[in-house]
Design goal:
The protein is built from six helices and no strands. The chain is elongated, with a radius of gyration of 18 Å.
């Protein structure tokens, strides 16, 4: 007779897997909110002539910043610094990706309500994940 199989031990870092899903949900929420904001303000999110994939790539890079913010915030004793750092990182990587395309794009994005909304919304995922995993 064979020995019973041991129960699999749980992952020591479940926030890494959950962070991927939370970052994707954050990106979809930002995409939806920016769409509503574009209709309400009657304004394009990116008014300068750029390639068709710039917005998607910038959002993808910002999503990576949110993921890293989640991974680094969950083990912290308090989530506030991680949340502020994640919001700042989203703002800065969006400006940096704009600066790679054109300096005027980076300057236009610096005061854009779409970028500011994405940065404000980026503070929530690290706090939510920290609160969830702190109880486990």
């Amino acid at each position: 007779m064979s020995a019973p199989t041991p129960t699999p031990e749980p992952s020591r870092h479940p926030e890494r897997i959950a962070g991927i899903f939370v970052a994707v949900v954050w990106a979809s929420i930002v995409f939806a909110v920016d769409g509503v904001l574009a209709v309400v303000l009657d304004r394009d999110p990116i008014e300068l002539p750029v390639g068709p994939f710039y917005g998607v790539l910038a959002l993808g890079i910002a999503m990576l910043a949110v993921y890293l913010g989640i991974v680094f915030t969950v083990p912290a004793p308090r989530p506030w610094l991680g949340a502020v750092a994640t919001a700042a990182a989203v703002y800065l990587v969006t400006l940096a990706s704009g600066a790679l395309v054109d300096t005027s794009l980076a300057l236009a994005q610096a005061g854009s309500p779409f970028v500011l909304t994405a940065a404000v919304l980026a503070a929530a995922p690290p706090i939510a994940c920290w609160a969830y995993f702190a109880r486990r």
